[in-house]
Amino acid sequence: MRILHVTSHLDVGGVARHVVSLARAGVARGHQVAIASSAGALAAEAAAGGVALWDAPLRTSAEFSPQVFTATRRLAARLRREPVDLLHAHTRVGQVAAARLARRLDLPYVVTWHGFFRPNLGRRLWPCTGDLTIAISEPVREHLVRDFGVPASRVRLIPHGLDPTSFETPPEPAAQMAFRTQCGVPSGAPVVGTVARLVRSKGVDQLIRAFTRVRAAVPAAHLLIVGDGDARAGLEAIARAEGQADAVHFAGTLPGTALALSVMDLFVFLPAEQEGFGLALLEAMASGRPIVSVRRGGGAAWVLDRDGIGPLVEPADVGALAQRLTEWLRDPAAAQAAGRRAHDVVTRRYTFTQMADAVDSVYRELAGTRVS
Fold first, then answer.
1. Is 194 helix (H, G, I), strand (E, B) or coil?
2. Is 169 found in the same domain as 305?
3. Which of 9, 86, 156, 324 sees the fewest Cβ atoms within 10 Å?
């Protein structure tokens, strides 16, 4: 089958990593796969997996930007030379481009909704929900049916997945020690950590303020923040203002999270309001980390509540977050038991193979006799 994924860019992030992983899995399954995007840091990883890269100027958040129409014209010309069996759109601008291409070239297309979106005028007039729509969590599925009027018969629930084996074997102690040293985390210090884009919507500032209370109860604790973004300078200023500059460590963006997760005693998941699931949550679960999450976005609560994996605290409740973290730092046996439960849930429900099988089924259902 010939498949073209359409997305904004391939910069490091949850959606881009999902697209690259899914595209590479498609190649491994014998499909011819390409990604149309504005490229980015993950482009080399995609190419190394045999995925063709099609340049399309989609690096914009404006769904009706001239860039989207330029990308559509460019992709239409290439698709006439190199036809595909179906389109798979990710991100809003990817949906708009795919909808135009599907209509112009009579192609089937599927859309993955990676989160929650306001039903604004543009989305009402041009929903671009595809011939079939993939929702990455039950709350997202309900959102599509309730707020966008997508017929339930056209929605397929396919949660994200990953390969847990890549997180199950702890890195060598020497590598862990070198990473601690690089980040400034003392040997043996208990570590509270998170992996998140450093943007306002994630609430990393609240975690830093909660950590001040944690450290008052557990003075040896340190906070490790993996990720980068526009809010980093402001967050560093908050850590200084809280008197925690010596104990709050910013690791920046990393090529992988397994090493960082391996040194964390507790993981804090900070979903954005529009986040429908969160790959960082699955990675922490696969690593067997005890997890405390903020109840925001819907996806994390759906994953954690249904299996009793870990506590959730309400947004902006700094005191409750600090209390939960302190309790588990003081009771490592209970925390480790929760981490084992989280790992077991990943291996049963959220493997990459399960996800890729389900997406392949959607492709077959959608393409039908068009498959060649």
1. strand
2. yes
3. 156
Give the residue among 224, 213, 228, 217 at the shortest CA–CA distance from 268.
224
Could you read off the pLDDT of 334-372 as tens digits, one per residue? 999 999 999 999 999 999 999 999 999 999 999 874 433
359 shares its domain with 210: no
**pTM for this prediction:** 0.86
Range 141-145 contact pairs with CB under 8 angstroms and sequence separation of 24 or more:
143/113, 143/116, 143/298, 144/113
pLDDT single digits (tens) 235-264:
999 999 999 999 999 999 998 899 999 999
Burial class (CB in 10 A: 0-12, 13-18, 19+), 357: middle
Phi-psi region of 195 (alpha: psi -120 to 50; beta: other; left: phi over 0): beta
Same domain flag for 331 and 199 = yes
Residues 6+ apart with CB under 8 A from 69: 100
Dist. CA 135–CA 81, nearest whole Å = 32
DSSP 280-345: HHHHHHHTT--EEEE--SSHHHHHHHHHT-S-EE-TT-HHHHHHHHHHHHH-HHHHHHHHHHHHHH
Structural domain span for residue 249: 165-349
Judgement on whether residues 329 and 356 belong to the same structural domain of the protein = no
For residue 199, what is the domain's CATH number? Answer: 3.40.50.2000
